[in-house]
Write a structure and sequence with these properties.
heterotrimer; B: about 325 residues; alpha/beta; 12 helices; C: about 400 residues; alpha+beta; 6-stranded mixed β-sheet; 4-stranded antiparallel β-sheet; 16 strands
């Protein structure tokens, strides 16, 4: 199966702008992600969020583009940098902030933490902290959908560093030979943790340059253009849903902060950071919407609405206490217990 | 009753469950068209078709990752890891993903999957194809661990594992594949988490697992006829959940415990059982607890060497006799 | 200065603290009663060896320790180190009262290689581990050994029909020791019983005239016992082998006659107190000696010398009215004589003038002897000599 038709790239090039409602939805989702993630940063600095967290400030267009394009019952899998992806599937912002703060109201009851956000009811099938581990799991969800003929699609988000680990190779090969309805999305933010991706990858484009190894179309797109993301997502989802198999997509983007809270990102050249911040997806899109005829008031209303939403989520999460100690040994097994003996 | 070999009982157990629930699917390397390298799954693809019984590439992480993804989205998948030594290749999926995700998600999903694997030595395959690794699995919270010793238990426990809503690692001892036993006709299910007293006795409890069970039974015969020692033999069957009730009842009665395992000297399952008994049945013990294990070396391949290191019936007898005063 | 567990007898290796009469911090004078100690044979008082302050008590009541163990420490007057003045009752003194408490862990049991289940069963059934024979390797006591003992106890209780209504009275130290010694004596010596009846007419001729005055002056009764004791000393001169011990395959004949008398302690135990060199004592001296021994025994004031060195034993259940007794030899002696009740009986008296029936005070002397040491004929001859002495001696002259 050798897909050199350039089908997906063509869909991207030929895509017309989404309708107004979709564009507002995309803008709203990006702002929600940005504001929530910014608030997470602030709460961490106030020591209300412990441990570590991996923020995706600057990468909102990917989460929003795919989030809006996906069907409610589609499956998404993401990495530990997954707050936005989880929010974009419709998970509760209070639940997300609560989970980061280790509160009882947290999305995972305080048991999973920042790196494992999950909302199965919304199809957000988990954030995974081991590089690449979720790629075969996503293939499995796709296999299940295929077996059940449900039309569901699994979308799997991962970073540029993941393309060099074994599970990347096994999963895409597996998905390709079984023609599974899974979309693999490589968010290339140019750095594998603290190291420039070019120094550790044998090819210039870590995702797109590997696609042909699996008989898949090389796809490379601007991850900061939410219209492009939406178009690409729609095309890949349609391809999978129609039984035409998996895709491997590389989108280029940039994180405003370091790898994790412990990392101020000083290893990146100032000019590079400045250049990418000038291409911040949200102000760029805001301008495009204004240019396209949507009025300022509408956009301001969305800004205010999301700001209020974040404030309320933070308030509610703060008011929640820590989890009851009893939950520490619950739900290892399906019956809710953790018992290993009689 | 039918006479089945241990290997035939594998296919019989899978088939029984695949017939009653079409969510049960099965994947692995060479399992479908070839019927398995140990011929444990012959006939399954013919009966259930290529959509339900599928061959995979050599890609253990993908196999188990896909199994997990399928289990969390409505299927009841069975995966084969050809040799249990290969768990090391995909151990991340087993212990970091499968074992933990239900807990981390606070119960949002469950993983009704079975990973079956050919375990243990005695086949002269050398150190990377002969390990018994059920103790690795026992050490990780979130995994159920089963190891049958007979054809009947293979079928019955595999059926129970497939029906169980939690992840089960099912260890088939490859040295037992050729052994035969009576297997009940019709639907046969054995409960997980229940040990079985296979031979009653009064002087010592020999607690064994999988391929060590027949050797323990043989040793018990010798102990009775040549040493007038009455040994009780307990087949553990499930390491997790562990049937401490049955094991404790036996040791309370006999006041002596000998465990027999194929694991190496350190941190095998016998160490855990011994520790539980030492802590909770201290005041019932008339002798120190003894673990009969493989020495702490990789398994050698030459038949004479391998036979010398794996616990034999003779070694079990010698260890029990040494305890008796 | 240290107060040590004394050696209260040659074969005594340990002692038990029965009671402390002082507590840590008390001022003591030399000679003050500090504590009571029990050994295999006797309860003894330990007095303060020096004046000072009893700064610490190291062994608690009820504990059994080896001879030589430090029981307590007295800070002797003038000693500076670690001696708090009595008035202030320094906390250090109180703490050291139970030094084992410094470690949070209870003391390790010093009972050798007893497995956990054996220890539990012994405690549960209130057994004395010394009673349990070990059938395991190197004499190790196994669970089955203990269970056998328990079921044997249960069986014998059942066999005597005691069953469920019985009361279980654990042996105290004296009872345990007595039981052990009796079993061992019987296991050591092949006991033979011989008896002879004695006409105490001649003894009464002396005793009855003296007894009222004796009672008034001395405060205790003049019984048959000192007369018999005197007769025994005289008879032993002619039959020295009854006053001996078996040592391996030799008979050790003792030159001294140290007569032990069995004393019952109000049905709470049995002692044999010794009148040393009894053959040098007259009847009245014997009476006096015996009375002192009995008095000391009953008030717990016997000293080790009172209990050691006996060569021949007299047992006198006579006051209880018994006909005869087969006593158990007091090891390492070879014979023991039981003197039972002397009662008026019709008796044939022979004389030149012919036989008559008279009322005479008749008592049976029963002799248990160790058949390793002597034979029946020797013992019988000894008894005959004893009879002759008792029946024909001019007792007033011996008095």
């Amino acid at each position: 199966m050798n897909d050199s038709s350039g089908q997906l790239m063509a869909a991207v090039r030929n895509a017309s702008a989404p309708d107004r409602d979709t564009r507002l939805a995309l803008y709203r989702q990006m702002q929600a992600c940005r504001m929530m993630e910014q608030r997470a940063y602030d709460l961490f600095m106030q020591n209300l969020i412990k441990g570590t967290s991996h923020l995706a400030l600057g990468q909102e267009a990917v989460a929003a583009g795919f989030g809006v394009a996906m069907r409610d019952d589609d499956y998404s899998f993401c990495t530990y940098r997954g707050h936005n992806h989880t929010l974009a599937r419709g998970a509760s912002m209070t639940g997300i902030l609560g989970e980061l703060m280790g509160r009882e109201c947290g999305l995972l009851g305080g048991k999973g933490g920042s790196m494992h956000l999950m909302d199965v009811d919304k199809g957000a099938m988990g954030s995974y902290a081991i590089i690449g581990a979720h790629m075969p799991i996503a293939a499995g969800a796709a296999w299940s959908a295929q077996y059940r003929e449900s039309g569901q699609v699994a979308v799997c988000f991962f970073g540029d560093g993941t393309t060099n680990i074994g599970a990347f190779h096994e999963s895409i090969n597996f998905a390709a030979i079984w023609g599974l309805p899974v979309v693999y999305v490589c968010e290339n933010n140019l750095y594998m943790e603290y190291t420039p991706i070019g120094e550790v990858t044998a090819v210039p484009n870590p995702g797109a340059d590997r696609a042909s190894a699996y008989g898949l179309e090389p796809v490379l797109a601007d991850g900061n253009d939410v219209d492009v993301m939406y178009a690409l997502a729609s095309a890949a989802l349609e391809k999978a849903r129609s039984g035409d198999g998996p895709s491997l997509i590389e989108v280029q983007t940039y994180r405003h902060g370091g790898h994790s809270r412990a990392d101020p990102g000083k290893y990146r050249p100032d000019e590079e950071v400045a250049a990418w911040k000038a291409r911040d997806p949200i102000p760029m899109y805001r301008q495009r919407l204004l240019d396209g005829g949507i009025d300022e008031a509408t956009l301001a209303a969305i800004d205010d609405e999301q700001a209020a939403r974040v404030d309320k989520a933070e308030q509610t999460a703060r008011a929640s206490g820590p989890p009851l100690l009893e939950v520490a040994d619950t739900d290892v097994w399906a019956d809710g217990s953790s018992s290993w003996r009689n | 009753m039918a006479q089945l070999s241990y290997r035939e009982a594998v296919a019989a157990g899978i088939a029984q469950e695949m017939r009653r629930d079409d969510k049960v699917v099965f994947i692995g390397e060479d399992v479908a068209a070839a019927g398995g390298v140990f011929k444990t799954t012959e006939g399954l693809q013919a009966e259930f078709g290529a959509l339900r019984v599928r061959d995979t590439p050599i890609a253990e992480q993908a196999i188990l990752g896909a199994t997990m993804g399928a289990a969390m989205t409505g299927l009841r998948p069975i995966a084969e890891i050809m040799f249990s030594d290969f768990f090391a290749v995909c151990w991340d999926i087993v212990v970091n993903q499968i074992a933990k995700t239900r807990f981390m998600s606070n119960g949002q999903c469950s993983f009704p999957l079975v990973i079956r694997s050919a375990n243990g030595g005695g086949a002269r395959f050398g150190a990377q194809h002969s390990q018994s690794v059920e103790n690795w699995a026992m050490a990780v919270p979130g995994l159920k661990v089963v190891a049958p010793s007979s054809a009947a238990d293979v079928k019955g426990l595999l059926a129970a594992a497939i029906r169980d809503p939690d992840p089960v690692l099912f260890f088939e001892q490859k040295s037992l594949y050729g052994t035969k036993g009576e297997v009940p006709e019709g639907e046969h299910v054995e409960p997980l988490g229940k040990a079985k007293v296979l031979r009653e006795g009064s002087d010592v409890s020999i607690v064994a697992l999988a391929a060590m069970v027949p050797r323990a039974l043989q040793a018990a015969e010798t102990l009775q006829s040549e040493h007038n020692i009455s040994a009780e033999v307990v087949d553990v069957r499930s390491l997790v959940p562990l049937d401490t009730t049955t094991i404790f009842a036996s040791v309370s009665k006999t006041a002596r415990l000998v465990t027999v395992e194929e694991n190496p000297r350190l941190c095998g399952w016998g160490a855990e059982v011994s520790s539980l008994v030492a802590e909770e049945l201290f005041w019932d013990l008339d002798s120190p607890i003894v673990r009969v294990t493989t020495p702490h070396v990789p398994l050698p391949s030459a038949d004479a060497l391998e036979d010398a290191v794996l616990p034999s019936a003779e070694r079990i007898v010698a260890n029990v006799v040494r305890l008796a005063d | 200065m240290d107060v040590l567990m004394p050696q209260l007898g040659e074969t005594v290796a340990e002692g038990t603290i029965a009671a402390w009469h002082k507590k840590a911090g008390d001022t003591v004078e030399r000679g003050d009663l500090l504590l009571d100690v029990e050994t295999d044979k006797v309860a003894t008082e330990i007095t303060a060896p020096e004046s000072g302050v009893l700064s610490s008590i190291l062994i608690a009541e009820g504990e059994t320790v080896d001879v030589g163990t430090v029981l307590a420490v007295i800070a002797v007057d003038g000693e500076a180190a670690g001696a708090p003045p009595a008035q202030t009752k320094a906390p250090g003194a109180a703490e050291s009262a139970a030094p084992q408490a410094a470690s949070g862990m209870p003391e390790k049991s010093a009972d050798g290689r007893l497995s956990p289940v054996v220890r539990r069963l012994v405690k549960q059934h209130n057994l004395d581990i010394k009673e349990v024979a070990g059938s395991g390797r190197d004499g190790r006591i196994t669970r089955q050994d203990v269970l056998n003992l328990v079921s044997a106890g249960a069986q014998s209780a059942a066999a005597t029909g005691l069953a469920t209504a019985s009361q279980r009275i654990p042996f105290d130290r004296v009872r345990k020791v007595t039981a052990d010694r009796m079993v061992r004596s019987k296991a050591t010596s092949p006991h033979v019983l011989q008896a002879i009846d004695i006409d105490f007419h001649a003894v009464d001729a002396s005793r009855l005239t003296r007894r009222n005055q004796w009672k008034t002056e001395k405060g205790y009764s003049l019984t048959y016992l000192p007369y018999v004791a005197r007769a025994v000393c005289l008879a032993i001169r002619d039959f020295p082998k009854v006053n001996a011990s078996v040592d391996g395959d030799a008979l050790v004949v003792h030159s001294d006659i140290n007569l032990a008398i069995a004393i019952d302690l109000n049905h709470e135990g049995l002692l044999a107190a010794v009148a040393r060199k009894a053959d040098s004592l007259s009847v009245s001296e014997l009476a006096q000696t015996f009375n002192e021994l009995v008095t000391r025994a009953k008030s717990n004031k016997l000293v080790p010398d009172d209990l050691q060195g006996g060569t021949y034993t007299l047992s006198n259940p006579g006051p209880f009215g018994t006909l005869f007794t087969a006593p158990i030899i007091n090891q390492p002696q070879v014979a023991i004589l039981s003197m039972d009740a002397v009662k008026k009986r019709p008796h044939v008296v022979e004389s030149a003038a012919g036989d008559e029936i008279a009322i005479r005070p008749i008592g049976v002397l029963a002799h248990s002897f160790d058949h390793r040491a002597i034979d029946g004929a020797y013992s019988a001859a000894y008894l005959q000599r004893l009879k002759t002495i008792i029946e024909t001696t001019d007792w007033d002259a011996e008095f």
